[in-house]
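Running this now, will post back.
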Amino acid sequence: MNATATARTARRRTLRVAAATLTAAAALTLTACNGSDTGGAKTSGKADSAAAADSKGAGSSEVQGKAGGGANQSAPRCVTDGLKAAFATGEDAVPDPNAEGSTTTSIVLTNTTGTSCKIGGFPGVDLNTEHGSADWSLQRSSTKFSSITLGPGDSTDFTINLALAGEDDEDSWTPAYAVITPPNETKSITLDWPWGGLVDQRSATRPATFVNPIG
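Update: finished.
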């Protein structure tokens, strides 16, 4: 074989090796691209699924929240016939006659119906004598208030600030009954007065005995 033939054979071999190398490189590149795309699709699919689940979860929470709020807001007003009233008489609820300035008593209101109802604001409180006249219609405090929902059997309360009189106070006045009128109602509940005499401030501009809002 002459020099020219030898050179041609070597050149053909070089081209075949180069072509094989390019083919292998292309195959590796294609495989790598396919693997990356497939992996990316799987990752994207998981992310999309998670996002979709989160979206559904958020949507469910939002719907449930709105449904709950709507149910509370649609509850009717608590009426006198559906409420039970009682003075709280537990150890911590007893007014302290030795308190400086004033002490408090609590009146508990319980929903006795089988459905929820809303209540809020100031009840009317009249302290009456044995004759049943409204001898002292208590003033309201300046405390802010909001409505609350009472489920069947649920209770709430309100407090009355009291200026209890001492045993020897000449200006002592003792009611016989507390007449409670729930907010926005005209029918009342009459309770026996369980405590002692009050400092008689029925004509005072700012008496130390006054009523606070429900809740």
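Residues 2-71 have pLDDT under 50 and may be disordered. More later if anyone needs it.
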